[in-house]
Amino acid sequence: METRAQPENPFTIAEADYRARHWRATTSGTLRPGTADHKRAVADMFRETFNPYRPSVIAWPKLDPETLKRITSLPIWDIAVETEGKARLRMAAYAATMTDPEMRDAIARNAWEENRHKEVLTKLVEAYQIGMAPEPPYVVPRDAEWAYLVTGFSECVDSFFAFGLFELAGRSGLFPEELIETFEPVMQEECRHILLFANWLAWHRTTLTLYRRVRFEFRVLAVWLFLAYERIGMVRTLDGNGEVHDQDNNFTISGTKDVSDTDIGLRDILGVCLSENARRFSGYDPRLKRPRMMPTIAALLRTVLPRRRPGSPANRSANIPPSP
Ligand SMILES: [Fe+2]
Ligand SMILES: [Fe+2]
Q1: Where are the domains of the chain?
Q2: Which ligand is nearest to the CA of 107?
Q3: Beta-bridge partner residues of 96
Q4: Which residues surround ligand 1, an ion (CB under 5 A)?
Q5: What highest taxon heads this organism's lineage (predicted)?
Q6: What does the alpha-carbon distance between residue 288 and residue 30 come to, in Å, rounded to a whole number?
Q7: How far is the CA of 86 from the centre of ligand 1 (A)?
Q8: CATH placement of domain 32-53+62-305
Q9: Cα 266 from chain centroid?
Q10: How far is CA 295 from CA 161, 200, 227, 275, 302, in A?
Q11: 114 CA distance to ligand 2 centroid (A)?
Q12: pTM above 0.85, yes or no
C-alpha cells in the first residue's frame, strides 16, 4: 500500500483526525454480518478512517531528566516493538490467504498500520536513546488463521486496558502533553483495529459450514486459554542473540503504577477503561459490531470489587470521581 501524503496544515490534520474517529455507512437499515452491506461497510470504514500521519516527521519533545528516566525505564519497549512487528507479519500472512477482496484489503491495510506503529516506536526509542535488545527473527506463521486470531484477541485485551492507562497517564501530568498527543492517533488506531477484528470475526462465522463453525469455536476457545496462560506473570523471552529477557507482557493490565503517581483501586481503573472504551468507539457506526469480551468481564468484575471511600486522596489526585 502506498504512503499517503501528510496533511499540510493544522486544519487538514484536525480534519483527518476527525475523520479517523467518526464514520457512518451511507446505507440505511441494519448491517447484519454475512450480508454484502455489512462487508462493504467494514471495508469502507477501515479505508475511510485512515489517518495519514507520518512517523518520520514526528518532533519528539525534549524531556527533563526525571521524565526521561520514567519513560526509558518502562519495562515495555522491547515487547512493544516486537508485538507490532509480529502483528504486521501475522496480519499480512492471514490477508494473503483470503479470497474475499474487501476483507483482504482491510486486513492488509491493518498490517500496514501495525508496521507504522513499529516505526513510531522505533523513532521514539532512537530519540530517547532507549537501550533495546536485538529483535528476534520474525517468522511467517505456519498456521495463519491461528496467528491472526491470537493477534486479534490480544489486541482486544491490550487495547481495552491501554485506553484506560493512557487516560490515567494523561491525567497524571507525569508525561508531557506533546508526547501524549503524539500517541493519541496510535491509540485511536488500535480502536479501529479491534473494531475491524470484531466485524471480521462476525463475518467469518457466517461463511463457515456447521462442521467448520464448530471447529472454529474450539479454536477461539483455545486462543483464549493460550492468552490466559501467556499472561500469567512476566514472560521470559529470548532475543536475537539468544539472551534471556524479562519483559512485562502484562503491562497493559499491571502498569498503572508506572504511568500514574497515585494508588488507584482496580475497580476505578476498570471504570476508566470502560468509559474510555465507550468514548473511543462512540464515533463509529453503532450498527457495526464491537468487541464485547473485555467490557463485559470488566463490568462484571466491578460489581464484586470493593468500592473506595468517596473522594479518597488517591482517587482525588487521579481525578477519579467517587464510584457510583
Ligand atoms: Fe499496533
Ligand atoms: Fe493494532
Answers
A1: 32-53+62-305
A2: 2
A3: none
A4: 84, 114, 117
A5: Bacteria
A6: 9
A7: 10
A8: 1.10.620
A9: 20
A10: 10, 19, 17, 10, 10
A11: 6
A12: yes
C-alpha cell of 236? Answer: 521470559
Q: Confidence class of residue 301 from pLDDT cuts 50, 70 and 90?
A: very high
What pLDDT sits at residue 231? 80
Q: At what angle do helices 177-206 and 266-281 cross, to 10 degrees?
A: 70
Q: How far is the CA of 117 from the centre of ligand 1 (A)?
A: 5
| Cα 83 to ligand 1 centroid, rounded to whole Å | 8
For 51-67, the pLDDT digits (tens) are 999 998 888 999 999 99
How far, in Å, from the CA of 189 to the mean position of ligand 2? Answer: 7
